[in-house]
Amino acid sequence: MRTFFLLPALAASACAADGTTSSQVTCGEPRYFQIDKVHVAADTGLDLNKDGNPDNALGALIGAVRLANPDIGDLDAKVNARLATDTPWFLIVSDCDDGQHVEIGDAGGEDTVPLSILVDERGDFAPVAWVRPVRVKSELSFAPDEAGGKLAFILRSADVAHALLAPTAIWFSKELAAGSSPLAATLDLDKDGVVTVDELLQSDWIHTLTRPDLTLDASGVPIGMSGGVYIHATRVSL
Fold it and tell me: Of 75, 79, 62, 97, which Cα lies nearest the Cα of 226?
């Protein structure tokens, strides 16, 4: 048996990762599913702030980079190759006395997202940047040996800038060296032949796409970035 401490305002399929506790929930033994396919797009978000609209700033960022650089190729295939080799990512599903709970994470089980592989245009960025979300929400369907559907999450913006942009900076630097991207040349602000994370953050285009889109407290100030992915996962034993 496992015990969870959850915010009462969160749905049974959503788990908080901000350390707040309120009520104790008792659960049965968890089932584990290894995520083997991921698709990131603008339409893979869920409503994370209860305004009736799906939230997915991460999907918008990735879509814009893909549109500006069609030679990236199949980004989903690169993500899935990492999931199958050096970056195992799991769903941990528990049937509890208040409903079903879904966690996502590495083998350690804490809610966490391998953010850098989701935005890695080359498919080989290392080390993988695992980022702990503030909130996770899911819409999943389950069969005995597989699961599929949407995972959505809120990331604290201050925690994600380097994980989001370091792979993209390397991609634009390679494009700049090859002379194959006029956009890369505009991002190299100091004209030293290398595009850095700091230079990306100074770009109006990138700044707009990476700015916080969700509030996380009563202040009303956006400090969270939304993300959403479509996943398929296969049941495993851990």
Answer: 62
User: Residue 13 has what DSSP assignment?
Assistant: T
Alpha helices, DSSP H, located in 119-229: 157-178, 182-187, 197-202, 204-210
How far is residue 29's CA from residue 101's CA, in Å, rounded to a whole number?
Answer: 11
Spatial separation of the C-alpha atoms in residues 86 and 21, rounded to whole Å: 33
d(CA 157, CA 142): 32
State pTM to two decimals: 0.83
Q: Which residues contact 231 (CB under 8 A, 6 or more apart)?
A: 35, 37, 38, 39, 91, 140, 147, 148, 149, 150, 151
Neighbours of 157 (CB within 10 A): 19
The CA distance from 117 to 154, in Å, is 17
CA distances from 93 to 43, 112, 219 (A): 24, 15, 33
Q: Which helix (H) or strand (E) holds 223?
A: strand 222-236
Hey, what are 128's tokens? 């993988």
Q: Each residue of 91-123: pLDDT tens digit?
A: 999 889 888 888 898 866 578 999 999 999 899
Rounded to the nearest 5 percent, the helix, strand and coil shares of the chain are: 30, 35, 35
